[in-house]
TrEMBL record:
<dbReference type="InterPro" id="IPR048284">
    <property type="entry name" value="EryCIII-like_N"/>
</dbReference>
<feature type="domain" description="Erythromycin biosynthesis protein CIII-like N-terminal">
    <location>
        <begin position="22"/>
        <end position="264"/>
    </location>
</feature>
<feature type="region of interest" description="Disordered">
    <location>
        <begin position="64"/>
        <end position="85"/>
    </location>
</feature>
<dbReference type="InterPro" id="IPR002213">
    <property type="entry name" value="UDP_glucos_trans"/>
</dbReference>
<keyword id="KW-0808">Transferase</keyword>
<dbReference type="Pfam" id="PF21036">
    <property type="entry name" value="EryCIII-like_N"/>
</dbReference>
<feature type="domain" description="Erythromycin biosynthesis protein CIII-like C-terminal">
    <location>
        <begin position="280"/>
        <end position="425"/>
    </location>
</feature>
<dbReference type="Pfam" id="PF06722">
    <property type="entry name" value="EryCIII-like_C"/>
</dbReference>
<comment type="similarity">
    <text>Belongs to the glycosyltransferase 28 family.</text>
</comment>
<keyword id="KW-0328">Glycosyltransferase</keyword>
<dbReference type="InterPro" id="IPR010610">
    <property type="entry name" value="EryCIII-like_C"/>
</dbReference>
<dbReference type="InterPro" id="IPR050426">
    <property type="entry name" value="Glycosyltransferase_28"/>
</dbReference>
<keyword id="KW-0045">Antibiotic biosynthesis</keyword>
<protein>
    <submittedName>
        <fullName>Glycosyl transferase</fullName>
    </submittedName>
</protein>
<dbReference type="InterPro" id="IPR030953">
    <property type="entry name" value="Glycosyl_450act"/>
</dbReference>
<dbReference type="GO" id="GO:0016740">
    <property type="term" value="F:transferase activity"/>
</dbReference>
Length: 436
């Protein structure tokens, strides 16, 4: 079987795909990972085959251009909704958003996200490659709708691999329910309006699986999954941090409770900054009877005159190797941070940065009992953060609950366990091979 993975040009989106890609490769299947040239070298470092497609995105520049376009649109429309606010998918209660709000959400998502990561050039190059290589299965990042387009163009089976909570499936379910209730002339779907002519160009047609997949591979613990009526295939999250070397000090047990303080790589490398205040975080941990390992680089520490005596700062320490020795972790709510902490049963203090699912995931962390969250990241006081961190380390209930969720994850099929299921589903869903 030939399997084509599609990812966003960001390491945080590539890394969750690598364990499954290697499980398929180890089972004897041919595997390629396609993405923008921005990520080609990083894909190659995983030992897997990279397929560069489209133009380099320059995501930092793209963010600036989108913000400039939003300012121009805001100036023209006056007091219209802020597109950036519409992309903060935080209202997850049924009925919290009316149809107008959902319409705006999918309109902005189609314009600023879906089309950005699946432009015409990328689609054409992917389809050309797929018609030559003939994949049996396409596994795609939930934001890269080029994946199902390519699969339909060549008759391959296709599945989403989620990056966090299934926000798209959840919102899409509510949106389609409201759409069905509207008069036929008013049933405007911005996703279909974009993709229908694109699919027609490749001699196929739009269907709802283009948005939510023929099935969905879900690495989120089942107890934390959003209630969406779609076919899910649970898969244990296997932490992968890229190439890593274990430092000598990490092989020695800590003399005091160890805490990891990390703000992740995505905002640092892609969006150009952190939302949480580094100075406030360091003030919060100063003088506590803890050993704090902070993954902060020189730029993040540029406004700090002196590190507290109990803090050691490193540009990078692989979380998968660091967290087993930790009593707690402080993070910005990124998928890799949350999932790796869950995999090792480490209590969490989440300071959600507002990107993608960080706010609802932070609330899940608190509601489930595996940790606590900061209610307002922009106005966090060091004393409040200190108090929450002390609770995580000293109150055993957090560690017990985190251990229980770790047990749930260990009972979930690992990537190599679901390979036979993927083989069966691919055979059921792919179309008979036609001429290349």
């Amino acid at each position: 079987m030939r399997v084509l993975f599609l990812t966003l040009p960001a390491k945080a989106h590539l890394y969750p795909q690598v364990p499954l890609a290697w499980a398929l490769r180890a089972a004897g299947h041919e595997v390629c990972i396609a993405g923008n040239p921005d990520l080609t070298a990083e894909i190659a470092r995983t030992g897997l085959t990279a397929v560069p497609v489209g133009a380099a995105l320059d995501q930092a520049g793209m963010v600036e251009r989108n913000q400039e376009r939003e300012r121009e649109q805001s100036a023209l429309s006056g007091d219209g909704p802020d597109p950036e606010e519409l992309l903060k998918w935080t209202e997850l209660e049924p009925g919290a958003l009316d149809h107008t709000a959902l319409q705006g959400l999918f309109t902005v998502a189609t314009t600023l996200v879906f089309r950005t990561y699946s432009p015409d050039r990328t689609l054409d190059e992917l389809v050309a490659f797929a018609r030559e290589w003939r994949p049996d299965l396409v596994i795609w990042d939930t934001l890269v709708l080029a994946g199902p387009v390519v699969a339909k163009a060549v008759g391959a089976a296709h599945a989403r691999l989620l990056y966090g909570l299934d926000l798209i499936g959840h919102m899409r379910e509510q949106y389609l329910h409201g759409l069905d209730a509207r008069p036929l002339p008013l049933r405007e779907d911005p996703v279909e309006e974009w993709l229908a002519p694109v699919l027609d160009r490749y001699d196929t047609a739009f269907s709802e699986d283009v948005v939510t997949g023929q099935w969905t591979i879900d690495p989120v613990p089942t107890s934390m999954r959003l209630p969406v009526d779609l076919p899910y295939l649970p898969m244990r999250h296997i932490p992968y941090n890229g190439r890593a070397v274990i430092p000598h000090w990490l092989t020695e047990p800590p003399e005091r409770p160890r805490v990891c303080l990390t703000l992740g790589l995505s905002l640092r490398e892609v969006l150009g900054g952190d939302r949480a205040s580094v100075r406030t975080l360091l003030d919060a941990v100063a003088d506590l009877d803890l050993e704090v390992v902070a993954t902060l680089d020189a730029e993040q520490l540029s406004g700090v005159s002196r590190l507290p005596d109990n803090v050691r700062a490193f540009d990078f320490v692989p979380l998968n190797e660091l967290l087993p020795s930790c009593s707690a972790i402080v993070h910005q709510g990124g998928f890799g941070q949350v999932q790796t902490a869950l995999a090792h049963g480490v209590p969490q203090l989440s300071l959600p940065n507002g990107q993608w699912d960080t706010v609802p995931r932070a609330q899940q962390i608190q509601d489930s009992g595996v940790g606590l969250r900061a209610a307002d990241v922009d106005h966090c006081e060091a004393g409040d953060l200190r108090q929450m961190l002390v609770r995580l380390v000293e109150e055993p209930a957090f560690a017990r609950t985190a251990a229980a969720v770790r047990g749930e994850m260990l009972a979930t099929p690992a990537p190599h366990d679901i390979v036979p299921v993927l083989e069966r589903l691919s055979a059921e869903h792919r179309l008979p091979a036609g001429p290349a």
